[in-house]
Amino acid sequence: MTRTHRLGIDRIACDGRGLCAELLPELIALDEWGYPILHDTAVSEALLTHARRAVAACPVLALRLERATRD
Amino acid sequence: MNERPDAVLTEQAQDGRSGPHGTRLLHGWYSTGGRADLAEHLGRYGPPPLPPGRRPAIGLVQAVEEAGLTGRGGAAFPTGRKLRSVAARRGPAVVVANGMESEPASRKDEVLLDLAPHLVLDGAALAASAVGAAAVHLCLPRTRADQVHRLAAAVEERSRAGLDRVPVLVHALPHHYVSSEETSLVHWLNGGEARPTATPPRPFEKGVDGRPTLVDNVETLAHLALIARYGPQWFRGAGRPDAPGTTLVTLSGAVRAPGVYEIALGTQLGSALDTAGGAAEPLQAILVGGFFGSWLPAAGAAAVPFTRPDLAAAGAGPGAGVLVALAQDACGLAETARVLDYLAGQSARQCGPCTFGLPAVAEDFVQLAWGRADAALIERLHRRTGQLPGRGACRHPDGAARLAATALHAFAEDVHRHLAGGPCAAAGRPAVLPVPDTRSPESEGWR
């Protein structure tokens, strides 16, 4: 059993500031209107620090990092 | 309702188990040709077998699980599992009966509530017993004022007869496409706007008044009312082992007798259309599921059984039981463009991808159907459509994207023709799909 982390976006709160894609381009891109597209919701150990930084930087608190337990 | 060409009104059976043509929910209609009032309902079915006590009735939950009933509102989620999740939560629960039917191509909930209102109300009362609920909320669209009055009167009549153990409240909500979504209903019942909210929490965790809340489509509840009476084995006597029971369908477009019918799950789409008299002219495609549904080329679609797994393998889903037959000489691109324009206008405008992406896709489709389109537009359309799914608080962008993507596939030849020569002659004909002429939700209000 390993602990993994998953990214989630509150789509109603998100207003497309785009900081997340700047700080975490490995997992997040922006569409033509500046709203995030997640390449993958699972966050690897190597990207965890960057993901935390992106979550903290979101000015409307729309980006979340959730713990998920996987067998 | 349209009468079947081969309809034979037979004598009333001893109990309500099944009527002509294997009907269950529409048994009363096929037997009498009229609305079932309370006296007739009780004569056919007797009172709802409410289990004693206020605690969740796990026996009833088990019966629904064994029956294999799935939600008839569109998601086809196992109803028993939903009942169990709500019953397992602490404290009294709430039941919401969803009769909003915001899908413009569907009439089945309206017809069911009209012809057999007491089956739905029995089902709501029984579901309340199953999950230990202290109240039932029946949500109906404000646009169906007559129905709201009739249902309120039916509830009142049951109350005088002492049939229901928990109060049933009838509500009339704004009728926008996304207002029938379960979080919209919960939000409205809690005093907010009938717009989807972010999840979690899902209604089963924290819904109306913060209580665990069961939201079920009214047809689902009517099936539950029959399972409670006749048991899971009886329920499984129709349909297939992996897709048991019957389901209401709304059949329209190029069929001889459009209307609401009841079919066994597993019926092939071609046979389903035959219940409405069959195709009135040669078909090119069938829209399966409704405005959130999929276009399937008619040739391959006729043999696909109406079950969730079979439809999924064909790239479709049952939705709310909508089948629209599109004749050979209609323009599928123009039909799709009109529906996408409506869906874009019905966005709750809360999430960016839906607020901006949906109108963009709709506008691209308008260009494709009636304007000048080139290869770059098609490429952009594929990209924009591919980016919509999974990026909203609700499934509105997913549904619209599915319609657009399946249209590009099913009408691929028309796409080439429009690219080469501009709009086809059929693009200017009257619409087959009934796109409502509604004002935008913003001007009409969400409350």
Strand and helix map with partners:
The complex is a heterodimer of chains A (71) and B (447).
Chain A: E1 2-9, H1 19-23, E2 28-30, E3 36-38, E4 42-43, H2 48-57, E5 63-70
Chain B: H1 27-32, H2 38-45, H3 58-67, H4 79-87, E1 93-98, H5 108-115, H6 117-131, E2 133-141, H7 145-160, E3 168-173, H8 182-189, E4 213-217, H9 218-235, E5 239-240, E6 243-244, E7 246-253, E8 259-264, H10 269-275, E9 283-288, E10 294-297, H11 298-301, H12 308-313, E11 322-327, H13 332-345, H14 352-370, H15 375-387, H16 396-410, H17 412-421, H18 441-444
Parallel strand pairs in B: 1-2, 1-4, 2-3, 7-11
Antiparallel strand pairs in B: 5-6, 7-8, 9-10, 9-11
Helix pairs in contact in B: 3-4, 3-6, 3-9, 6-9, 13-14, 13-16, 14-15, 14-16, 15-16
Task: Give structural notes.
The complex is a heterodimer of chains A (71) and B (447). By secondary structure, chain A is of the alpha+beta class. Helix content of chain A is 21%, strand content 34%. Chain A contains 2 helices and 5 strands; from the N terminus they run E-H-E-E-E-H-E. In chain A, strands 4-1-5 form a 3-stranded antiparallel beta sheet. In chain A, a hairpin with a 5-residue loop joins strand 2 and strand 3. Chain B is an alpha/beta fold and 447 residues long. Chain B has 2 domains: 216 residues, 3-Layer(aba) Sandwich (Rossmann fold); 100 residues, NADH-ubiquinone oxidoreductase 51kDa subunit, iron-sulphur binding domain (de novo design (two linked rop proteins)). Chain B is built from 18 helices and 11 strands. In chain B, the strands form 3 sheets. Chain B has a 5-stranded mixed beta sheet. Chain B has a 4-stranded parallel beta sheet with strand order 3-2-1-4, with helices on both faces. Chain B is globular. Classes of the chains: A alpha+beta (71), B alpha/beta (447). The interface between A and B is medium-sized, with 13 and 13 residues.
